[in-house]
Specification:
424 residues; 21 strands
Amino acid sequence: MVKAVVGANWGDEGKGKITDMLGEKADIIVRFQGGANAGHTIINDYGKFALHTLPSGVFYDHTTSIIGNGVALNIPVLFGEIQSIIDRGVPAPKILVSDRAQIVMSYHILFDQYEEERLGGKSFGSTKSGIAPFYSDKYAKIGFQVSELFDDELLKEKVVRVCEQKNVILEHLYKKPALRPEDLYEELQSYKKMVAPYVCDVSLYLHNAIKEGKEILLEGQLGSLKDPDHGIYPMVTSSSTLAAYGAIGAGIPPYEIKQVITVCKAYSSAVGAGAFVSEIFGEEADELRRRGGDGGEFGATTGRPRRMGWFDVVASKYGCRLQGTTDVAFTVLDVLGYLDEIPVCVAYDIDGEITTDFPPTYLLERAKPVLETLPGWKCDIRGIKRYEDLPENCRRYIEFIEEKIGYPITMVSNGPGRDEIIYR
């Protein structure tokens, strides 16, 4: 059976914990999109980890971790990450890399930095991991596919062609040093040496695993609102963050995805620029940021302070709809225990018109939150294992959110640890 774990919002919803938890019963975990530009924070028996490319189920010795063809594969980052978890006592993971995945090159990272620098105050808030230049090259058909590492003649010709194009931009737009074909060829040879033992026809491997009845998890990066088609364009990522893309980014038929677990935070947070209707500021935001997550709300990749806000029903309902949600995993609920009252954004006011439907970006920029306030529960709920044992106001908050978004909350996370979960 294939299940997808994806985000409803801007990312940072807690997908890593949910994947890590579900990994106990999985055979295979697949990263199907995105790159090392966002992290998944995991807390388990081995300690606390921020993963950027490895799937979050990598800590189980019975699982196979797969980098799918839809991933922006930064080979040094992947192998540095593997070594970093082994150094901390995690058994060496079983890794497979799709022969159709494409490679993040060192110049992609440079171009990302140069473009943010050029845009100045109008920048996209990129993590400068090379993701947008990478996907631009992929769709312009000048990227390097893993399989191409094994065709030497092709590589020697292609590095010359790539340099010719890139150097025009480097010289005339960015006023930066030119690329040399021999340097790119050397870079690709070093990547070949690292990745060769792990390369696999992933689509065929998964086809056989599905036939054998294996349990497969697809792990997404970021969330619905960062999708390049359906998100807050242009402040989005460069690959589709939706469960539907899991079929493409892993190489399986779409009808094989039987369960879509969409992760929602009990409040909102976002890293990077873009419209964020329920955002809060000042001391109110600082306190929630300090108490939030698993040690404060700061980006797992960049360390940047996350922008904070109250739960946004409009954005979350939309995000769940796009994902094709069958189950909602509701995370970091324990964080809200300090509040006397908890505001929830239940609608948007756009130029005097009230709506509960998520609008395109030009209208979203004008939206103001319509808030409804619920009573808090004023106690620590960590350690509670049964839904019935949660405080009444806590259950009311969950059921209020569930009714408003229209999708069943079947998992409630009440702490960062793997076992701090309540099933409904």
